[in-house]
Amino acid sequence: MSENPVFDRIQAEIDANDVVLFMKGTPLFPQCGFSATVVKVLTYLGAPFKGVNVLEDPELRDGIKHFSDWPTIPQLYVKGEFVGGCDIVREMFEGGELADFLTEKGVMLEAA
Amino acid sequence: MSVANQIEQKLTSLLHPVALEVEDESHKHKGHAGAREGGETHFRVTITAEAFRGQSRVACHRLVTNALGELIGNPIHALSITARAPDQP
Lengths: 112, 89
Description:
The complex is a heterodimer of chains A (about 110) and B (about 90).
Chain A: H1 5-16, E1 19-23, H2 33-45, E2 50-53, H3 58-68, E3 75-78, E4 81-84, H4 86-94, H5 97-104
Parallel strand pairs in A: 1-2
Antiparallel strand pairs in A: 1-3, 3-4
Helix pairs in contact in A: 2-4
Chain B: H1 3-15, E1 19-24, E2 42-48, H2 57-68, E3 78-84
Parallel strand pairs in B: 2-3
Antiparallel strand pairs in B: 1-2
Helix pairs in contact in B: 1-2
């Protein structure tokens, strides 16, 4: 058990899913432009991911910021590693780095 | 002082940038969640500083957000960051 009970739930999501996006809204209906951008990038690359809607849970919404030491949402985790938020994902995507990173991490990309 | 000026002041004093641009993009988010009457909620920061050299992307962003401290959350609702060391692409 960690000091903050919500941390255990976050860790469980990250352990159970290779690619986890903590976001506002759902992959189908993102409720924030930054979350929508990351969904688009992952979908374009054919990376399967679990979207976790922080708007459904105020404790999670606050807790994820402390868990990652990152004050904004969305937040992307790959194989337990914190990758970053929208700006970093977009930069890595535009530089062609993100697909390689995901593949190196062992994430199977489906042909779009 | 405007929020953009406060951002500029904090980043300048803590990270000593050689280039810094702070844009208030609140008008682009009018009516969205987190947008307020009067704006000053959504910002874009483009910053070049020696402090970022050799740091990971995540570390660079943390340097910026830590420097802004309690401005994040309120009044800053959203922040886009581009952080580079001098002569990095």
